[in-house]
Design a protein that fits this description.
With 331 residues, the protein is an all-alpha fold. Helix content is 69%, strand content 0%. The termini are far apart.
Amino acid sequence: MNGSELVNETLELSPLLPWADGNGTVFEFSSASVSHLEFPVNPWDIMLCLSGTVIACENALVVAIIVYTPTLRAPMFVLIGSLATADLLAGMGLILNFAFQYLTSSDTVNLITVGFLVASFTASVSSLLAITVDRYFSLYNALTYFSEKTLHCVHLMVAGTWVVSVCLGLLPVLGWNCLDEPSTCSIVRPLTRKHVTLLAASFFVVFGLMLSLYFKICKIVCHHAHQIALQQHFFSTSHLVATKKGVSTLAIIMGTFGASWLPFAIYCLVGKQEYPPVYTYATLLPATYNSMINPIIYAYRNTDIQRAFSVLFCGCFQTNVSYRSRSPSEV
């Protein structure tokens, strides 16, 4: 084969590479006929895989702590466990997507992998909403929060979260995909533009609900602080510091969530498959960071989980010290 023939063949094969096509796809699989020893691995795919690895390790630890610690059975830990499980599956999905992307060109595997990621990330976002709802009711109905009814409601929320997430993840496998009609593809092949629009719209609904609930939580916290100040006839510095800390924590939670997911959600609405794939990668990668930060915000900062971590891995926690169930508002 002479030099011109080699160049022509390379140009013919280049559209098969996920970072060389013009359809803006992230989960595109490379052709099995292309030798990957001849072409470099897309660095964006490497970063997504590394992000998935960190996510899986962090959340696997949280799941292990909650599962193997009998004292962590309060409603809030059920929700944190659901969030950690969703993020763990999302991390594993990113790793599997990277592996399959460079090993097979099967459309079936492509659909399953993309559906798995959609279900996992949807469950993660939905679990964040469930945690927000739980935090609100722990303050609004503080006297009746620690009851069997609350635990039952939490189990129903978790079940509903996963049923909806799995259904959304199964849609591509059940036929709602663009494999037969490439013109309907979105920025994430093989998802259709309507499917991606539905996911983006659902995110904005969840984001709006969380923003509204956290605003109400801030009002309740400030009201409680004011009532305490009136009872003690003065507003002490400690109360002021505690109130500011609570409000700033809620701001960090919403700021992190919005900064991670908003760019990708907006691009899902305005982006087209003809746009360069780098735009999709650049907005999707920060979205994965939310699953990386979640265990730090919701799990590792919790005193009970820190104690359970010491018991499970260090053996340095004295077992005669009693655990105290904390409400979600304290997390």
